[in-house]
């Protein structure tokens, strides 16, 4: 087969049993493809290990058979666990990528390891960055693996109902990548250079069907859930007994066409079984956690890729269903009554998305009921670029007491246009956008704008970015940590890829980030970085940094409630940062990060370490700790901040999982215990039992406080969900 030739898939001549044994009659006549190419430690040379795959299909499913040959007949395979949706660069896995619209922008991803554990996900924005690869999406498909003396084999069945594609199309784009833990080799079927991500979509080959595909009948899924829980707030004098609650709800997915999907949700449960682990927050601005909720995941990039991901994101779905208690300043759950969303492709050039959600009023925190409507459209341009538009309407529908109100002056709206550049050869990437917010005040400065351009070759990378956000720009359904700024962020990097060395990559990079307001410069960060990848899969990162900060508001650098540095004060300080990640193919893996040097008008030492001990693939124990020693002159607060705790992850089978983590966070004087049992009794159908306990404490390392603990809150939740296809 030619290096960039297509794969010709033919219809199956008989049934296929998904058991990992490649003895079914259809595999005898299916075309065999080999000739994989190295991606790591070298690239664009023939792979040292042979990989072979075959594809076929019938009326319901697409099938894959793959054989991954080994170098060592007595080797052990590396898998972080038997849990679904695993990550890692140093594992054993074969992964299939399907770009069903040949747009080089979006794709489905399906992977299987030697133990038969599955992972599926979505690739967006061409797979150009790490954040464009998400494993949060779940759906039904089937796989089994089998380990033999000198190879391991996989069979997959992917229902056409799981995929989105256009009727009467006879060509998709496709690629594979394989990771082998014994040699550390990573290979791809279509060659990809290491200065791009291994799942970059610009380099896929064609998959040619012998007959144009048709929609495979009705495609409707129901995912109901029932939840029962009991909780108690020990700090609330009014709650002297445990509080029990029962909830019902669920989601539905209806395929309007083979490329366009309707998602609906009623009384969704968004936070009972997924708990965000705590972090030490020393940032002056709001931080956010990634979206994990099923309703928002498919085609999520169509809504969330607008704007700047860190400074001016007009729509951020985690803001819906979360509110701030004005009396405590804490995030609390805000009930969502319903949600509906239509998203997908109209044809190979057009994508659309329409979303509407209704949240409940909450008298306790004086929160009115709110309706959110979002409309997005995207048009492909040239080979892989696109232009998109978004409109968001946030409208109060009831006051905090639940009385119907449709006040015309109680709204927030936003409209914007984005152009995304991606060249056919993946060397040039870019973005330019302009957004404007609207409310009853109609003040000047209700806009945001940015432009970004990146060029990368085999040895060089240059990028330029600027962002301009008006004083009165608002995006209540988005993420905008600061307004009234102009920011530039140029950088230049040089890459050296040595052959036959202990190292596989040396990277030297310099960059600068500067913020101004209307009057003056308020922030400047200059950095010089040196990073290196080892042939063992370990990685080292170092940098020297110089910061300038002009405080526009009082700020306590420890965030512990002490006296804040005054508004209008300015600081120049220098520090070093480092991180090291060891070879995680070993029994014990280590990640170390740190920072040392000046910090505002004092000094900071930060050490962050995690030690991972594994009995593969059944158990892993992670011991992690984050220590910050901040010393500031009087009268400002100094602090020793700890965030420490173990995490135990046990996967008894591919269907039974148990996870427990304990965290002590001295910044908020809290000890948290979270235990979760999960039984996946059918594909994408689960029983969860989750126990959470929080204790308040003074510094437990102070002998005087050794036994000073008090109960804060406790909860036990049982949740059952079932995915039913019609």
Characterise this structure.
The strands form three sheets. The protein has a 26-stranded antiparallel sheet that branches. Strands 1, 2, 3, 4, 5, 6, 7, 8, 9, 10, 11, 12, 13 and 14 form a 14-stranded mixed sheet that branches. The chain has a two-stranded antiparallel sheet with strand order 18-19. The protein starts with 6 loop residues before the first strand and ends with a strand. It contains two helices and 42 strands. The relative contact order is 0.10. It is mainly β. It has a domain at 7-209: Immunoglobulin-like (Sandwich). Helix content is 1%, strand content 52%. The radius of gyration is 26 Å and the shape is globular. The model has no long low-confidence stretch (mean pLDDT 91).
């Amino acid at each position: 087969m030619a290096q960039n030739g297509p794969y010709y898939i033919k219809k199956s001549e008989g049934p296929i049993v998904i058991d990992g044994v490649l003895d079914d009659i259809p595999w005898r006549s299916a075309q065999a493809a080999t000739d994989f190419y190295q991606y790591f430690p070298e690239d664009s040379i023939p792979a040292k290990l042979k990989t072979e795959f075959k594809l076929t299909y019938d009326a319901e499913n697409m099938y894959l058979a793959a054989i991954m040959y080994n170098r060592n007949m007595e080797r052990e395979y590396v898998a972080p666990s038997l849990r679904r949706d695993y990550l890692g660069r140093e594992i054993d896995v074969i992964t299939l990528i399907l770009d069903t619209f040949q747009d080089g922008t979006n794709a489905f991803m399906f992977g299987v390891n030697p133990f038969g554990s599955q992972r599926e996900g979505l690739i967006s924005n061409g797979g150009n960055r790490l954040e464009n690869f998400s494993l949060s999406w779940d759906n039904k498909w089937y796989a089994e693996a089998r380990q033999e003396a000198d190879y391991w084999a996989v069979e997959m069945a992917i229902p056409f109902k799981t995929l989105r594609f256009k009727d009467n199309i006879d060509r998709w784009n496709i690629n594979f990548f394989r990771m082998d833990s014994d040699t550390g080799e990573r290979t791809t079927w279509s060659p990809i250079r290491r200065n791009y991500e291994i799942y970059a979509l610009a380099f896929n080959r064609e998959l040619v069907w012998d007959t144009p595909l048709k929609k495979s009948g009705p495609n409707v899924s129901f995912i109901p859930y029932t939840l029962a829980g009991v909780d108690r707030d020990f700090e609330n004098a009014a709650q002297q007994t445990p509080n029990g609650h029962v909830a019902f709800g669920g989601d539905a997915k209806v395929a309007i066409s083979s490329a366009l999907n309707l998602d609906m949700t009623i009384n969704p449960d968004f936070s009972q079984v997924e708990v965000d682990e705590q972090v030490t927050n020393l940032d002056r601005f709001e931080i956010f956690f990634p979206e994990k909720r099923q309703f928002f995941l498919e085609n999520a990039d169509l809504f969330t890729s607008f704007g700047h991901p860190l400074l001016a994101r007009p729509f951020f779905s985690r803001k819906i269903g979360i509110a701030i208690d004005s009396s405590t300043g804490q995030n609390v759950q805000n009930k969502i009554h319903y949600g509906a969303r239509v998203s997908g492709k109209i044809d190979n050039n057009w994508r659309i998305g329409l979303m509407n959600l209704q949240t409940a009023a909450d008298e306790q925190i004086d929160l009115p009921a709110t309706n959110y409507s979002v409309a997005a459209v995207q048009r492909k341009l040239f080979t892989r670029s696109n232009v998109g538009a978004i409109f968001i309407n946030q409208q109060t529908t009831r006051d905090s007491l639940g009385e119907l109100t449709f006040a015309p002056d109680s709204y927030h709206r936003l409209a914007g246009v984005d152009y995304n550049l991606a060249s056919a050869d993946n060397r040039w990437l870019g973005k330019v956008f302009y957004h404007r917010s609207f409310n009853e005040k109609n003040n000047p400065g209700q806009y945001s704008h940015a432009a970004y351009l990146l060029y990368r070759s085999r040895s060089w990378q240059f990028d330029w970015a600027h962002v301009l956000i008006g004083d009165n720009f608002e995006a209540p359904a988005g993420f905008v940590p600061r307004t009234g700024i102009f920011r530039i962020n140029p950088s230049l990097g040089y890459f050296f890829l040595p052959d036959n060395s202990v190292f596989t990559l040396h990277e030297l990079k310099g960059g600068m980030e500067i913020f101004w307001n209307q009057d003056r410069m308020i922030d400047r960060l200059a950095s010089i970085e040196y990073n290196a990848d080892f042939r063992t899969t370990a990685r080292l990162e170092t940098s020297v940094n110089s910061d300038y900060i002009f405080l526009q508001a009082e700020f306590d650098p420890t965030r512990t409630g002490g006296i804040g540095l005054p508004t209008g004060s300015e600081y120049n300080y220098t520090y070093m940062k480092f991180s090291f990640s060891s070879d995680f193919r070993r029994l014990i893996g280590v990640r170390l990060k740190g920072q040392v040097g000046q910090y505002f008008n004092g000094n900071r030492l930060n050490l962050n370490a995690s030690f991972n001990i594994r009995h593969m693939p059944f158990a892993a124990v992670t011991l992690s700790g984050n220590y910050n020693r901040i010393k500031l002159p009087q009268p400002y607060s100094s602090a020793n901040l700890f965030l420490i705790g173990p995490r135990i992850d046990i996967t008894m089978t591919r269907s039974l999982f148990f996870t427990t983590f304990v965290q002590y966070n001295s910044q908020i004087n809290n000890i948290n215990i979270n235990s979760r049992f999960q039984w996946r009794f059918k594909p994408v159908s689960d029983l969860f039992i989750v126990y959470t306990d929080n204790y308040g404490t003074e510094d437990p390392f102070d002998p005087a406080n050794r036994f000073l603990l008090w109960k804060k809150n406790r909860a036990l939740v049982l949740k059952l969900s079932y995915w039913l296809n019609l």
